[in-house]
Design brief:
- 30% of the residues lie in helices and 26% in strands.
- It is built from three helices and five strands; from the N terminus they run E-H-E-E-H-E-H-E.
- It has helices spanning 15-20, 40-49, 65-79, and strands at residues 3-6, 25-32, 35-36, 53-60, 88-92.
- Strands 1, 2, 3, 4 and 5 form a five-stranded mixed beta sheet that branches.
- It is elongated, with a radius of gyration of 15 Å.
- The termini are far apart.
Length: 104
């Protein structure tokens, strides 16, 4: 299957054109840290309307178990009542400038 990772960085996407180009699915960034991606709802709605398979991911910057729980709660709130064709991905981001990886 051919797919794309999409987020606010991509701006407005024409998912009908995307699908006609051979893309079969998108994995949409739902948010990062404790913030919802400002394009998540639009990307989700438009990708579904275009008939693409949809997945989602959340970027975690948590440094402690409590911060990870708070981010997971934010993610669950954003994703509630949505339907997905793939598992939800929880991506752990490192910060090389600070010389650490999340608490994993």
């Amino acid at each position: 299957m051919n797919g794309l990772d999409v987020s606010r960085i991509n701006g407005h996407i024409n998912f009908y054109v995307t699908k006609r180009s051979g893309i079969e699915f998108v994995v949409i960034r739902a948010g990062a840290g404790s913030q919802k991606d400002p394009f998540f709802e639009l990307n989700y709605t438009r990708a579904r309307a275009a008939g693409l398979h949809v997945g989602a991911y959340w970027l975690s910057y948590a440094e402690t178990p409590d911060a990870a729980r708070a981010e997971a709660a934010a993610c669950a709130e954003v994703l509630k009542e949505k339907q997905f064709d793939f598992p939800i991905f929880y991506a752990l981001e490192n910060d090389p400038a600070r010389g650490y990886f999340p608490f994993v």
